Amino acid sequence: MLHYVFRLRFRPSLMVVTFLLAALTVLPATAADPLNVRIGYLQWKPDTGPVLSNVLPEPKDAGLRGAELAIADNSTTGKFMGHNYELTTQVTDSEQAAITEFEALQQQGVQVFVANVPASTLAAMMNKASADTLVFNAGAADDTLRTRECNSNLLHTIPSYAMLTDALNQWLQLRRWNAVFLITGPTAEDLAWADAFRRSAKRFGVKIIEDKPWTFDADLRRTAAKELPLFTQAKDYDAVVVADVRGDFGEYVPFNTWLPRPVVGTQGMSPVAWHRVVESWGAAQLQSRFQELAGRNMNSADYAAWTAVRSVGTAVTQTGQADASSIRQFIFSDRFQLAAFKGRKLNYRQWNGQLRQPIPLIHPRGLVATAPFEGFIHPRTEMDTLGFDEPESNCRING
Amino acid sequence: MKSLLRKTVLASLIGLSAPAMASVAYVSNEKDNTLSVIDTATMEVVETIEIGARPRGILLSKDYTKLYICASDDDTVQVLDLASRKIIDTLPSGEDPEQFALHPNNKHLYIANEDDAIVTVVDVSTKVVLAQIDVGIEPEGMAVSPDGKWAVNTSETTSMLHWINTETFEIDKNIVVGQRPRHVEFSEDSKIAWASAEIGGTVHIIDVDKLEQIHEMSFKVPGVNQDRVQPVGIELTSDGKYAFVALGPANHVAVVDAKTYEVLDYLLVGSRVWQLDLNKDQTQLYTTNGVSGDVSVIDIEDMKVIKSIKVGRYPWGVVIDPNS
User: For residue A182, which of A220, A209, A218 has the smallest C-alpha distance?
Assistant: First the structure.
C-alpha cells in the first residue's frame, strides 16, 4: 500500500537562494546595526593511550561539530534579528597551546568561550581568564569543578559524573537491583567515575557487594571468556557496574559475567548527556540536522557544546546584548530557559553554574529510560535529584 | 427502570443530533503509518487506512471532499479521497512536512518543512510550488487567517512567529515568543491569534491588526510538575467563548475563557495530549493522546471527558469532517 505511492522529493536549491535574498532585503527594516557575537571554541584532548576495545573509535571532532551546529542554529534566528554569530575554533595538540590560544583570543576581544578540555587544563585556563570572560565547560565531568573549585565565570553544560551516576542509581533502585558488583579501571577518570558511583549508591540505597579494581592487561578479545567469569565470581549480585571511561576493557564485560546479570555503567546500559537513540521531544530533528552537518551521530560532547552555544544564542536573542556580562546575567535570571530536546526547559544551577538536565540511560541501539524518575522528588525541581545539590556543594558563584 | 428510561432518552438524543449519516473523525497515527476513522456517533474506530510514513498534520479541503496528510518520512503530502477512502494523489511538499494550513481559496497549501527551515507554498490544483520561504529552525505550526491575509509559521528552535504575507509570500514581521512555539490558531474574525510555546509553557495572544502580543498565559495544573505543562494544540469555539489548550505531558486540556484568558478548568485526558478538534455543532472535542495511543472525547456542555477511544500508536492529528 505504502510503496505504490509515487515518492516525490522536491529539492529546493535555486529557489531557496532567491527567497533567502528576498527575505534578507526585506528584513533590515527590523535591524539597524548588526550585532556581532563571537564565540571561541577550544579543544584539547590528551591521548588516552591504546585501548583494548578499539573497534569503534570516538570521533576526533566530538564537541566541535556540536558547537558548529549550534552556530548555524543561532544564525538562522540571528538573520531575522540582525545578529551575526561567529565561531573561532582552536583544536590544539597540547595543554599549553590551548591556554595560549585562550589568552590570544581574549586579547582579540573574544569574551565567550566553549572549552572542551580536561579539568586540569580548564583550571589552568581559568587562571588566565579576565573578569569579563565567560567560559562554558563542555568537556570535563569532574565533580570537584561543581563542589570545590568554583569559578563565577565558569558554567558547565556537560553533566558531572555525579549526575550520571545518580541517574544510574535511581534506575537501579527503581528496578530493585539493589546489590551490585563494581569493577573500576585504572585511570584517574575511572577512579573519579567510581567515586561518584559510590556516593550515588549510598544516596539511593544501592549496596556495592564487591568493589574490585581492574588489573588485567591481557587482550580481552582473545581471553574475555576465560578471564571475566572468574573475575566476577561472587555469591550473588543484581548487576555488574563498570567504570571504564575511555572504553578500554568495559565492552567485553557484558555476557561474560560469572552470573547471568546485566552490565551497566560506562558500558552496557550507560547514563549519558546525549546519544543517537534519543528521539523524543523533537530530538529526531536535532539528530538529523547533526547527521547532515557532521556525517556521523551526535554524542554527549557534541550535545554539551551545542547547549553551550545555544545558551549564548538564547540570551542574545532575548536581550539583544552580546557581551559576556549581559549574557551571564540573563542566563542566571529566571527568564532564561533553554529548549534542548529533553522534554523540559533547561537552566543553570545558581550555586555552581551546572546546566540542569534529564539524563538518558541508553544501550548502543536503544533508549532504556530517562532520569529523573517519578518518585524521586525535590522541592526545587526533580532535575536537582541528579548531581550535587546546593547544600552538598561549596560553590556559591552568584553570592 | 429509571436507568432504562435514561438510556432511551439518551438514545433518542443521539438520534437527533446525528441523523441519517454519522459524522466521521480522522486520526493520523505517527508510528503506525495509518489513519484511524472514527464514527463519532458510536465513538468507535470503523476503519484503519494505511498511509505514508510518519503521518502527522492532517486537514480537510474546504469543500470537505479530500483529506491532506503530511507523510513526514516520505517527504510528501498525500491526498485522500473521502468518498472512496483511497489515496488518490500526492503533492510536492518539500522535505519532512510536519504541519500545514490551507488558504480559504482552497488552493494554496502552506507547508512547514521541519528539516529544511522552509515554508513551501503549493497550489493544490496545479501541484506547482509557488514559493519557498526561509523561516527559522524547525518550522512547525502553520495557520492561515480565516480572512486569508496572513499565513503564520512557528519555528521551534528559533522561537518565533513568522508572519507571511499571502499576496507577496514574504515575511512581513517576526515576533519572538516563548521557547518552542508549536501551534497557532486564529479567532473566527481573524483579529486574534493564539500561539502555544511548548517549553516556555505559555500561550501568547497576538493582536493581528497591530501584530503585537497583548497577553501571555501560563498554566498551573494541580498536582502536575510545572516542567510537564507543555502547551501544544489549541482549538477555539466559533462563538468566541472558549479556547482549549492541549498541555502535552501534563495530560490535561485547559479550558480557557477566550475573552478574559482566564483558565476555567483542567480536564484529565490521555498521556501526552497533542492536537484537538471540535465536531460540527461544537458539542464535542476530540483530543489525540500520543503516549497512551488513544483519543479522548470531551463533552463541551458538561466539560467532562466522556470516552477514550483506542487508536494506533502515537496518534498525532485529528480532524472531524463536518460534512459527513
Answer: A209
